[in-house]
Amino acid sequence: MKFMKLGTRPDTFYTEEATRTVSSDVASDLVIQINNITYLLHKFPLLPKCGLLQQLLADSGDSVTDSVQLHDIPGGEDAFELCAKFCYGITINLSAHNVVRAFCAAKYLRMTESVEKGNFVLKLEAFFNSCILEGWKDSIVALHSTGKMIEWSENLGITRRCIDSVVEKILVPPAKVNWSFTYSRPGYNQKRHQSVPRDWWTEDISDLEIDLFRFIITALRSTNMLQPQLIGEALHVYACRWLPDTTKVRPPESSASLINQPVEKNRRVLDTIVSLIPADRGSVSVNFLLRLLSTAGALGASPVTKTELIRRCGLQLDEVTVDDLLLPSHLSSDQHCYDIDLVSIVLESFLVLWRIQYPAPSQDSQFMRSIRKVGKVIDCYLQVAAKDPNMPVMKFISLAEALPDVARPKHDDLYKAINIYLKGHPDLNKAEKKRLCRILDCQKLSPEVCAHAVKNERLPLRTVVQVLFFDQERGSKATSQKLPPQELRSRTQEIQSNETVQSKPKLPPDDRAQEGARRAPSPTIHERDHHKKLHLKSERNIAISREQGEVESEKVRETREEGISGSKMMNTRKTTMQGKSSSDHGHYKGRDR
User: Fold this and answer.
1) Could you tell me whether strands 30-34 and 37-41 are parallel, antiparallel, or unpaired per DSSP bridges?
2) E strands along 384-495, which residues?
3) Is the pTM of this model over 0.90?
């Protein structure tokens, strides 16, 4: 960082309560008030160099002490004191931290060459152009200091010159960068790495206020000399620097901490970052977009910002991983950990784009591979979300049903998610279990998963029966496809002969043992397949009988209830008829009399 030293006299300014004065044998004859500070100074060193004071004191006459108020001086009392010390010849040190406010105050006091040769403005101008704008970090620091004097800095051209200097240095090829910069990425050591990374400039400009940062990014994009990924990386670094981290699961009571933060400022930062994202796909990662969308929900961002983020997330959803989707819910009404609503909205946006661009995609299309990849990730996400004990079953079902059939060539992962949900939510009633398992297509389960599902006591009986049926049907089709026609005929004959043998009268135990010993050949492969098929059929019949038993028991109970209610109605009707007959009998009897 560059410095400039002016003046040779020692600093003789001192403070008494709220008054600043100069140690001198001459009594002060000029009182200057700035905000809450009062300066007791002298006319003879200040008036020759300050054109504004000359104008203000021109009509004062020969008064002993004059008073001037300079409450609107840019930079405040610190900037004025730099100018006053220059007039007294007191030593001052100028750098990128104070040169802007000194320059604006000197311009305000009209310390120009027209007032006196070699005045303060000329020296500041030379130092600013030759030293500050030539350095990388000096330009950043000077630009940052303009935020306190925005109007004066813009009118004097300081802001524009700093931005041009920063942009010019960013566009320098990395091989020609010979100045120091801040780069604290994990695993990077500047002493070990001889080459300069392409994004060397992103951390330094992240210290700027959002408006100044926007000016730089806009200027960089207008040059069309940087890749969109570099612009996206700068936005990512800035967001990590200024936006709150909403990706960590917090307890419900800690959500109030987000409210205590400067929400309006964070919203403005978020809106600006989203508006600066390049239109090119892949300029920022889908992980970054999802984090911005989660932050937008936590901060209550504008609908325009949320809509744009949802659209961008949908465009790149085929790049997502399960970890990217594990974002916490920030709504106080939600007791579950993960924001499954956010995932559902992004998936819906992805499917809308998919249906518009590919109304009838082929099996080999890139988009078909993309949607199946998304389906795989969504099912794996459901397996994680199913472990949340407070996850509502209908939200779980809604997300699972959102995927089209082509996104799931197999339902193994979906079965695992359902099984995990059933295990973690033992209080589900029968109707909810049936509704949950209805999204499962048993024809798309692998044999290994079918074997597990048949023994799974958590599944409804109807689902188990379906698994048995389709597994048996698949086994019979596979066997018939493997056997040639001659073997099929021989196997049919074997089955018929077995049925004939079974229809014969039973022999005594001893005779059956002898006959079995005579006829019992070693079982063939086809016979083992047949026995296996019969075993599956028996299991299916057992499951069906169990379900029918439950249905029949329900019907018996309903019939019994109907019988009881019917008998009550008959008794009521009988009583009514008896009353009616009695009244009719009385009526006729009276008429006979």
Assistant:
1) antiparallel
2) none
3) no
